[in-house]
Amino acid sequence: MNKRQVTILWVIAIALGVAVTAVKLSQNQATRSATKRGPRQTLFESFPAADVAAITIKGEGDSTVDIAKKDGKWLLAQRDGYPANSTYVNDFLRTLGELKVTIGMEAGPSFAPRFGMDESSSKPDDHGLTASFKDSAGKEIAKISLGKNIENGAAPSPMGGNNAVGRYVRNHADDSGFYEVSEMFPSVSADAKRWLDDTFFNPEKIKAITVSQPGKTEPAWKLTRESEEAEYKLEGAAATEVLDTTATSPLKSLFSYARFEDVIPASKIGEKTGPEAKRIATIETFEGFVYTVTFALAKPAAPGAPAGPGAEPPATDNFLLTVSVTAELPKERKKADGEKPEDAKTKDAAFTERLKTLTEKLAKEKALAGVTFEVSKSTLDPLLKDRAGLITKATPPAPEGADTGGVQKLPGGMIATPPHSAVSAPVEAFTPPISIPPVEEEKKPEEKK
Q1: DSSP 42
Q2: Given this model, what pLDDT does residue 361 score?
Q3: Nearest 5°: phi and psi at 79?
Q4: Which of 170, 229, 288, 373 could bond to 260 as cystine, CB 3.0-4.6 Å?
């Protein structure tokens, strides 16, 4: 290859490089000019999160959530003003203020169904979600739609789940196009119960539990204990009634970390209440709290009834529950005789801190009065046992003269087995005699004839 040919090849290579660069620049320029917002820019030039006083989220059909701020708290209209999860609400507003565009696609509003924002569709994935934001005067200050998830095209994960890498969104104040973003908005929903604040009551240091019988005034059973470390005792127990600790132990931490499924609006309580009689559980604590819990089996959904948002199956064994809380908190600490000044100072500080915590706890739990919660059966399982369910099943007596094998039945269903004796009786083995058939003598040659 001579010098002239090399020069020509270099000229061609440079020309191709210039052409590719020009195409890319023109494409970037076209992308920037096609939509108002470009890659790495925020979806909103300035999202007015601080001015938002009301949020409405609409999904398919009648699925709608209205969240409004009152006295600094977010409340849910569809749940009679029950508090919303402020973390979810504030995270949603913050995310929108920081949301950055991945790709902008030039298209008019009529193309919304292609991106999963078809407001006439009855399918959640095709309908999408539309959220509007208003200020304290009721003026709409922003509106967006969340469409389909964006898949990355990779094979499904062996651990399950999809391969979504983002979502299509639309800013209704921007008619230049639709946008891809990397945010999935997993907590945003048009189902009101998904936005509920999950604060619930939690009895601590339980001292006594009394449970009523369905339709009767006298209690089914009452358990008490003398200290936080002690086991429960059954009030009025007969000599033959021994508590089963496997049944009573869960009652020490009753309702710890309990959660509710939903809050039932007053207008829906009648259609959710089943025919069974209500039961009442009274829970007393060592710190002076008294909880009165009323519960009854909820009416199951009608056969074939459509599931709610999220295609969840209708509940068949949930309960409706209400709770009221009272407490007599001590005003001062009882000091022990001969208490040293330095010890008294430390204990007084701990008492003051604990009293503050209990006062705040009482205020939060008192706010739950008058609210009807829907809870799962597992939440109430320890309270659903009758008196017989708390008693250890009696072991039938062994026949007279029978060898019990040294097994002793203890209260609470435990089995005690004594250790084996150090000296064991000798074991004799007998082998039956083995008979061997006689061997036939070999016949002489003349006897074979």
Answers
A1: B
A2: 96
A3: -125, 40
A4: 373
Q: Is 338 left (phi over 0), alpha (psi -120 to 50) or beta?
A: left
CA nearest to 99, candidates 188, 208, 160, 33: 188
Of 142, 139, 116, the closest CA to residue 129 belongs to 116
DSSP for 110-141 reads: GGGGGGT--TT-SSHHHH-EEEEEE-TTS-EE
Mean pLDDT within 378-383: 94
Cα-atom radius of gyration of the chain, to the nearest Å? 37
Residue 405 confidence (pLDDT) above 70: no
Listed in sequence order, the residues at least 6 apart from 124 whose beta carbon sits closer than 8 Å to its beta carbon are 59, 60, 309
pLDDT at res. 297? 92
Query: Which tokens is 254 given?
Result: 């009753």
The rounded distance, in Å, linking the Cα atoms of 33 and 30 is 5
Question: Which residue, chain included where needed, has tokens 């209260």?
Answer: 411
Record the pTM: 0.75
Instruction: Report which secondary-structure segment, H or E, holds 87.
Output: helix 86-98
Is the Cβ–Cβ distance between 45 and 38 less than 8 Å?
Answer: no
CB 225 within 8 A of CB 112: no
- Amino acid at the residue 1: M
Concatenated DSSP letters for 357-375? HHHHHHHHHHTTTTPEEEE
Helix H or strand E encompassing 323:
strand 319-327
SS3 label, residue 237:
coil
Measured at the CA of 247, the angle between CA 292 and CA 250, to 5 degrees, comes to 55
> Within 10 Å of residue 285's Cβ, how many Cβ atoms?
17
Torsion of CA 136, 140, 141, 144, to 10 degrees: 130
Q: How large is the average pLDDT for residues 95-123?
A: 93
Residues 151, 165: Cα–Cα separation, whole Å: 6
pLDDT in tens, 117-165: 998 898 988 999 999 999 999 999 999 999 999 987 655 555 555 678 9
Measured in Å, how far apart are the chain's first and last C-alpha atoms?
112
Long-range contacts of 342-349 (CB under 8 A, 24+ apart): none
How distant, in Å, are the alpha carbons of 90, 125, 182 from that of 150?
Answer: 25, 12, 9
Whole-number Å distance between alpha carbons of 27 and 143? 30
Distance CA 172, CA 144 (A): 6
